[in-house]
Amino acid sequence: MRYISDFISLIFPRICAGCGNSLWKNEEVICQFCEHHLPKTNFHLDPENPVTRIFWGRVRVETGTAFLYFNKGGVVQRLVHQLKYKGRKDIGIFLGSRYGLSLKDSPGFNSADLIVPVPLHRKKFTKRGYNQSEQFAIGLAGTMEIPVNTHLVARIKATETQTRKSRFTRYQNVKEIFSVDSPQNWRGKHLVIVDDVITTGATLESCIQALNAIPEVRISVVCIAAAMI
What we know:
alpha/beta, Rossmann fold, four-stranded parallel β-sheet, disordered N terminus
């Protein structure tokens, strides 16, 4: 069986999604070097971190965090690009499972009841075939040991990409684009809203505003990466 595996590896080599080098047998998705050098934020250790602060005076959140720093041309941008546009769902699950290990016992997240990925509009979902934020949520759920709900929030309006838009235009672009299904069923729950990259927080703010229809809801935010720092 080992020889068959080695033969398959020769034809279809396993490549690190970060640097492009071959993966060793004990490595998955990214090599140990890339994983060791991921630019981690450790925001979950700081209740007043930049992700949490971005929502101050806008919408109420329990806490917010992002796993990694996002820098143009860096390894995180390569990982996110492959996750979103190259069908590499395994990257999202891998990063989520790694960060979930840190969040599981974190005071801001150990009381969470449900993980809710920010949804795509059905047209974009059909075109892409999956939701990148859902893949990250699946990874988080596996190590945090709490369920994922992909039906609680729906994206009811299609929007243009936020890339290259000004801060004001970003907010106008995502205004009132989400709806919540049966908000009374989630009364008093602590929801973790999950997205890929946070820049201005406009999309997440719109999603949180919709979720505020839930009585006594508590909301926290987790992203793969932060680009607004």
